[in-house]
Amino acid sequence: MNFKWFGPIALLAALVIGDQIRINRPAHKYRLTVEVETPEGRKAASGVMAVHPDRSYTRRGQTRTLGDAVFVDLGNGKNLVALLAHIDKTVVLDDINYVALRAYTVAQGKRVSFNEMSRLTGIVPVKDALIPVLVSFADPASPGTAQQVAPEDAAAVLGKGYRLQGLTAEVVPNGYWPLDFGGALGEPVTRGIQAKLPWLTGADNSAATALRAAGLPGVDGIDAREAFTRK
Known about the structure:
With 231 residues, the chain is α+β, with helices and mostly antiparallel strands. It has helices at residues 6-24, 99-108, 155-158, 193-196, 206-213, and strands at 28-38, 41-52, 64-68, 70-75, 78-82, 86-88, 90-92, 123-126, 134-137, 146-148, 163-172, 229-230. It has one domain (26-230). The protein is built from five helices and twelve strands. A six-stranded antiparallel beta sheet has the order 8-11-1-2-3-12. The protein has a four-stranded antiparallel beta sheet with strand order 4-5-9-10, covered by helices on one side.
């Protein structure tokens, strides 16, 4: 074996791998937690989101979030889902990229830069316009049973004794792509919404059916699946 080229080849491989880590590593990750008061006590669920800026050489992309909508099982056949979407006259998919950033800015009372997000600590509330669209499914197996839930009046859809306790965001360890398997290596992105809403795996546009059933405006102009999951 000729070891003449071993050093240069190893260096080139290290540079390529390092560049891929730089491009694909998220800028920060955050855990979005949803808590609901129910007649049986407090129920909660959370999901880790990864926020990725465009670090490609073309710079033609945009900031994007990887993760799943947060599904809270409330018991007694009831549920609450925090979508990866907001409403501003129509459905907006990009605002989920900045939920944690804006929540920390509000909590600290000063501007927080995108680049410092991965170094922040603590849990902050997600309030008012920062709260993603909330929906509930009378039957999670049927997208047409979706109803939008108003944060200030969850009981109108979920029933007496149900109240949104609140949402919070918490920056979690970023890790090093693709080794973010948990613990010291970084929190992995949470998956599982497709097991809760099995129609998401289908080839039809059931996600759009769900958003329309919930009465959300502007569904025709978006990829409706991105309100539930992004990879």
